Request: fold
Amino acid sequence: MTAILLNGVLVIASPICAQDLTRSTSVADSKVRNIDGVAAVVNTGFVTRKEIDDRIASLQKQNAKLPDASSLRKLVLERLIIEKIQLQNAELEGASVGNKELEKILADTAARNKLTYTEFKDKVIASGTSFERYKELLRDDIIVSRYREREVDSKIKISDAEIDNFIMERTRAISGAGAQRSTQAINGGPEEIDVAQIFIPVEAGAGAGAQADAKKKADALLLAARGDIDFLQLGAMAAKENPKIKFQDLGYRTPDRLPKLFYDAIRNTGGGQVANAVVKSPAGYHVLKVLDRRAMSAGAPAQAIAQEPASSTPQNIPITQTNARHILLKSRSGLSDQDAERRLQGYRDQIRAKTVDFADLAKKYSEDGAAANGGSLGWMSPGDLVPEFEQAMNRLQIGEVSNPVKTQFGWHLIQVMERRESQLTVEKQREFARAAIRERKFEQAYQDWIRELRDTATVKILNVDDEATSALR
Reply:
């Protein structure tokens, strides 16, 4: 429940339509209005002003860029209302988390942070929250998360045809079959363009800092897309890291059916190539790739032209797998980028001088779950790792140790142990395709579900502008 607001769905409060109220409801509302600190009534429960204050305080501790105070209170209230509705619905359906399960989750969380249970408890209390309150919020968060996953998953439908089309496009991208434009298209004849995009949204009214961060992320994805990586797979990884990022294949379209900004950016871009620059729109930043360009059949409308059939039956795709290990220093307060890079550079010098073994350093200093195994990641296939890590790893010779590499997880030192040729089986391709398509559809299904929950709930906003302490003044 204390999860970062900016990683959640911010639904801006819309005006609540007036409803006919019975006399008993009016009396109840009057009583609720007199309860000091109630900001909104949500079905049979309520959101207090103190809950709003606590959530805002949590956000401020994260040093996130936040809107003005009034707008922030409204956004936080709306988020709390959505959470309250989800929790009420989940509990009505009998969802629960027992004490034994909750204690195991707490113990696992402590272990992942390399803390004993007591140390973890002390750390929570030091943050300003009682441990009992933390457990209560964690329990609610788990219940809501499970309920949300179940409900949204049930709304996502993926057909075999969608999976087949995804695999066909991905196979064509890997094999380079889409790199050639048709003769008719080159000669200026009517054509269709298959464009894919990775979209990094920027909320309306976002400040210069948020704009710059989104642009930086888009530029990094554009650079990665120019490398030896499948574009849709890159989009799937980016969306997994940040659910707000979306990726999609727009399918074959004539130029007039593409957004003008998109067509202007890829007008002279060949099949299999990415646009020269990131595209800025009022909604955010777009990284574009032309998957294919093809000539239209004479006299046939664009929508009547069927997708090109696959050239052969599904088959395994040859891939190169890498067995690597790493040392990770996580990004955290108190450890600057310069300090992390300097420490890893020192480890690298020791390894190259053969005064210490990579695995021993990883066991002692690495800050992830692979530390106990000497930093070993095992055999990795293309797309299993974040782009920055994978690109640096792919440039290494067997036995070579990288310079420090930064990803969203922190700073890494990487060593390649082995490489081998393998195959991505048809079954694995379908598993990946289903997961990628689900990722693509999840955000829209989630947004639709949230709107449905909000529209069918009874919500009455009483007082959002004042802080809980205002009554004491």
